[in-house]
Every structure is written in C-alpha cells, then in structure tokens.
Amino acid sequence: MTQPTPIRRGARSGHLDLALHLASMGLPVLPLRAGKGPLGNCRACAANACGGRPNMKTPGPCSCPRPCHAWAAATTDPRVLTSSDWATAWRDAGVVGYHPGGAGVTVVDLDDAEAVAWAHTALPPTRTVATTRGEHWIYSGTMRSVNGVRAGVDIKSVMSYARWLGPGTGTLAGLPDAVRALAEKAPAAVRQATRAVSVPAPAGGGQCRHRSPVYLERGIAMAEQRIADATSGVHAAVYRTFLAVLSTHGRCGCLTEAHIARLFTAAQTKGESPRHCTDAWANATAALGM
Fold first, then answer.
1. Which of 219, 141, 215, 211 lies closest to 183, judged by CA?
2. The pLDDT value given to residue 107
3. Contacts for 142 with CB less than 8 Å, ≥ 6 apart
4. d(Cα 279, Cα 236) in Å, to the nearest integer?
5. Could you give the CA distance from residue 159 to residue 156 in angstroms, rounded to a whole number?
6. Quick check: 70 and 59 in contact, CB under 8 A?
7. Element housing 33 (H / E)
8. Predicted pLDDT at 72
9. How far is CA 16 from CA 19, 85, 89, in A?
10. Angle, nearest 10°, between helix axes 257-269 and 274-287?
11. What does the alpha-carbon distance between residue 21 and residue 202 come to, in Å, rounded to a whole number?
12. How confident is the model over 61-101, as pLDDT tens digits?
C-alpha cells in the first residue's frame, strides 16, 4: 500500500475527493457513517431494504449490479464512486473507509493505550496510524479478520473494513507470524456452552407456544444480532440480551444447549470472555428468580 499524499478537499465533497485520491493509489474505498458503520450506497439499499444486517456490516442479498455496502462495496473504480447511486452515501458519510484485504494489507487495530503498549513488546515495528483511542499497526500481507483476539485488539484484513485516518508513519513491514498466531488462538476463546439452563416446565404441562421452530429461531437470531450490533457497553448489552431471552423463553423449557452456545459464541465474538458470559447468564437467571 503506497502512502498517498494529502489532497486539498474540493467543494463538492471532501470525503469523495479523498476517496477518489485513495482509489487512484490502488486503495479500495467506501463511505462510512460517523459512527464507523458502512452506508447503503444505492437508492434501493439506502434503508437496508435489501435484507443485510441492520448495521450493514455484511452485504445483504440485494439485486444490485454489484455489492453496494459493507466491505464488499469497497472499490477503486471512479465511475462507481462518482455514480448517482452513491451520491447520497457520500453526502451522509462521516469518514472514508477502505478494505485492507483488497489493498493487500492487514490492520492490527489497537483500541487503547494498554493494547498499544502490548504491541510494542509483542509485535515487530511497522507503519502506524494514530486513532481516536489507540493506533492502527499496518502490515503488508493478508489474512482472515478476527475481532477480540485479545483485550482491545482486532485484526482487520479480508472481508473487513477500516477507517482511513491518514498514511501514518514508519516503514511497512511484512505480516509477521506473531499476528497470524493471534488469529489461530482466537477461536479457542469462543467456547461452546457446556450445559443447558435448568428451568421449570410450563405450568399444567400444556404445549409451549415457543415450540414453534420459527418463533424460537427468530428470537435467538435477533438476540445474536443485538449482541453483534453493540458498539459500546458490550458487557451491558450482553446481559440485557441474555435477560430478554430468558424472560421470553427461559421458563418453558424451550432453550437447548445449542441455543445457549449460540448466544455465548456471539458474545465472545464481540470480545467477551467465557467467564463474563457465564456471569452474565447467571446474573440474568438470578434477576428473574430462576
């Protein structure tokens, strides 16, 4: 990834001008909201009508000529970037994003000072970019993207996006084994739930209304999505989600070990530890008197 030189932002759209400049340097770019989430870049998907996730972090099954949001939308084609379909997205954009994997790089996203201090002792030096709370360490080479590989550390490369915060400083180094190893260790932290929750059967032994597969599946899927969409206060979001699931499905014997495992996996993908998941579940059951 070549270091682009700063440009003078034009009157039409500073974000679009920057995006075109980065694209000319070979960086696949896309518009992001001020809160870092991607936008729907065409009229049909502007309100997520295509069925993607509500925060548009993954592409929906849209019928557009090409994927029009999330990392899959990142492009170097100026015709796409300046198309009328994308005009609203650039108008609403808060920042320019890019697809690290498409640019042939991996970003180690260090979210706080503690994570930055760890990187200085554990990773080889490379190009660094200051962020709001920490730093991006950028390496040449690609790998799978994984969030929460350790406290305050995410890996963004293929099938992911990152904010463009400037060219950074330092010499771009090759992707080291130490970073690849972080991704290999990450799945071990996502542990399957080891037991089903113990709750009383429905009063009177009647047929439980939640035994409809569609009803229960929709509830679990919505809970997974609620956790995935949490942008801050993840601990609280996980607890509230567990509480909501238990209050709806916990007293009738519907929940199985597989359902609980899905919720724990969603929480751990957001960086929660197995202990935090267990504690949140226990606190939710206690709050409901189970």
1. 141
2. 97
3. 100, 101, 104, 105, 106, 157, 158, 175
4. 12
5. 8
6. yes
7. none
8. 73
9. 5, 13, 10
10. 120
11. 63
12. 455 545 556 777 788 999 888 887 778 788 888 899 999 98
Contacts with 79 (C-beta within 8 Å, 6 or more apart), sequence order = none
Single-letter code of the amino acid located at 236:
A
The residue among 175, 185, 92 whose CA lies nearest residue 140 is: 175
H/E element holding 138? Answer: strand 135-140
Number of neighbours of residue 122 by Cβ within 10 angstroms: 13
Return d(Cα 227, Cα 240) in angstroms, integer: 9
Q: Which amino acid is at 220?
A: I
Structure token pair of residue 102: 């498409």
Please report which confidence band the pLDDT of residue 54 belongs to, taking 50, 70 and 90 as the band edges.
very low
For the chain, the residue count is 290
Contact present, 102 and 61 (Cβ < 8 Å)? no
Q: Give the whole-angstrom CA distance, residue 65 versus residue 75.
A: 13
Q: How many other β-carbons are positioned within 10 Å of the β-carbon of residue 12?
A: 12
CB 276 within 8 A of CB 267: yes
Band (pLDDT 50/70/90 cuts) for residue 218 is confident
- Measured in degrees and rounded to the nearest 5, phi and psi for residue 97 equal -110, 170
Say which residue the tokens 């998907």 belong to: 45
| Token pair for 260 | 């609980």
CA–CA dist 201, 251 (Å, integer): 7
- For residue 65, the one-letter residue type is P
pLDDT digits (tens, 9 = 90+) for 8-51: 444 346 899 999 999 999 999 988 887 677 766 555 565 555 55
Burial class (CB in 10 A: 0-12, 13-18, 19+), 231: exposed
